[in-house]
Amino acid sequence: MSSRLHNGNDVYEKAEEYWSRASQDVNGMLGGFEKLHTPDITVSKRFIESLKKRNLFGSYDYALDCGAGIGRVTKHLLMPLFKKVDMEDLVEELIVSSDQYIGPDPRIGEKFIEGIQTFAPPERRYDLIWIQWVSGHLVDEDLVAFFKRCVKGLKPGGCIVLKDNVTRTDKRLFDDDDHSWTRTEPELMEAFAGAELEMVVKTVQTGFPKEIYPVKIFALKPINQQDSEDN
């Protein structure tokens, strides 16, 4: 099913309605699968540390959490590693709840209340941009455009990470509950190429129940940046 068969604005409005009704806790952020939290954070932390060891981003200074919700990933993954973390989410109620969930902390930077279909990260700010379980809400052309804006948000040498479900088949699937797509890996690779991003590292999430979609983590670098670093 192509995202072109759905009107983007209609899908975005319905997705916002869905997440506005979600319980404002870890279980709500994980769609009722709270047990995924620990293996999710463990594998993600290992992945970021492996990127740093390979010099795929410059420093642990500044990260951005896209689709942050109440700040589950911000609090448990990014804040222990980075000196400063910005948050982005479409739903104002979730961002407001992050104040209580995370608590006052000088490592929290700006909180952007805007959907990723229009959000433009501040330019040349971030060492790492983390995009988890939110890209499926975008139609194809908006996903590519979002990746392009993320490239502008990177510091020189910075890295984008996408962590998301992928299908086990050669067809994407649409979820009528949260109004999101689960794409195939080739479709994601096509979106990366459209934004002139090179996939430099990939891993598969382990420790999740077998009945849910496979989850993969992709580290992405701007192709032009790669060219300049190689010269």
Explain this structure to me?
The protein is of the alpha/beta class. It has a single domain, classed as Vaccinia Virus protein VP39 (Rossmann fold), CATH 3.40.50.150. The protein contains eight helices and nine strands. It has helices spanning 8-21, 26-29, 37-53, 72-78, 92-102, 140-153, 185-194, 223-230; strands at 62-66, 84-89, 108-113, 126-132, 154-165, 173-175, 180-182, 197-204, 215-222. A seven-stranded mixed beta sheet has the order 3-2-1-4-5-9-8, sandwiched between helices. Strands 6-7 form a two-stranded antiparallel sheet. Helix 6 (140-153) links the parallel strand 4 (126-132) and strand 5 (154-165). The longest helix has 17 residues, at 37-53. The chain is globular, with a radius of gyration of 16 Å. The chain starts with 7 loop residues before the first helix and ends with a helix. This is Alpha N-terminal protein methyltransferase 1. GO terms for molecular function: N-terminal protein N-methyltransferase activity. Its EC number is 2.1.1.244.
Draw up the topology in text.
Layout (H helix, E strand, L loop, with lengths): L7 H14 L4 H4 L7 H17 L8 E5 L5 H7 L5 E6 L2 H11 L5 E6 L12 E7 L7 H14 E12 L7 E3 L4 E3 L2 H10 L2 E8 L10 E8 H8 L1
Parallel strand pairs: 1-2, 1-4, 2-3, 4-5
Antiparallel strand pairs: 5-9, 6-7, 8-9
Helix pairs in contact: 3-4
